[in-house]
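Schema walk-through. Below, the input block comes first and the output block second. Nothing else is stored per chain. Lengths vary across the set, and this one has 287 residues.
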Amino acid sequence: MLGAGTMGHGIAQVTAGAAYAVVMFDVSTEALARGYEAIERNLAKAIQVGKITDRDREETLQRIRSTSKLEEISDSDLVIEAAPEVLELKQQMLRESESLTKPECIFATNTSSLSITAIASASRRAGNVIGMHFFNPVHLMRLVEIVLGKQTSEETVATIQTVAKQIRKEPIVVKDVPGFASSRLGVTLGLEAIRMLEEGVASARDIDTAMELGYNHPMGPLRLTDLVGLDVRLRIAEYLHGALGSECFRPPDMLRRMVSEGKLGKKTGEGFYEWNGQEQAQRAYTK
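--- output ---
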């Protein structure tokens, strides 16, 4: 697992929970510590609600080895990357991983919007490169979006479908188009919710409640944006707006302003809601 952030540690948790041995890599030892602590908290909550036992918790934690030395991934059969949405960074991680791993090792990127084919262009074995898009929070969300690059082999697809099912996820397979299926739909909804808040149509909480109770969404689009990160959503919106040319992906001024002010959502404690571990209070932004 390359990256111990929000998505990285979540993916490490669910794979270790399915009896896979996991090496969780990050260049930051602080990020590794935070990621491991988050896994411990998630497992403790799962015990409280009766989803797992104490033994399950201990076995899951024992399967995870944290490291800041990339060479420790050399024995891996599958490398999953969860770096920021920057093409060059993902290509660099792909090249470095390939230089260390065996020829049959699969490289899966957790990108939510970037082209799998573009990422794979940095590879010497593009048939082994695939998209494996998880959703936040990883330990609760069931979907995995499997995205096919132009050269992704059928064998790689079959292997990743099997892995997804073994870690108790429901896989869907989509073509390599901007935004795939989930981000293209989800970002559209999230950006429109921000525009509605910007226009004063309703409060953040009421907009979210409309989707939760009216359309049976487990979480409203503004609260979800806080969890994903406003900076992440802005980067994806900018990419989709440029790639697809549709005005529905143009980032709202409110989103740009909040990112410039450092209000990035849960990870900074403030976004459309105030956060302190749990959601505390609605933010009332106006145009």
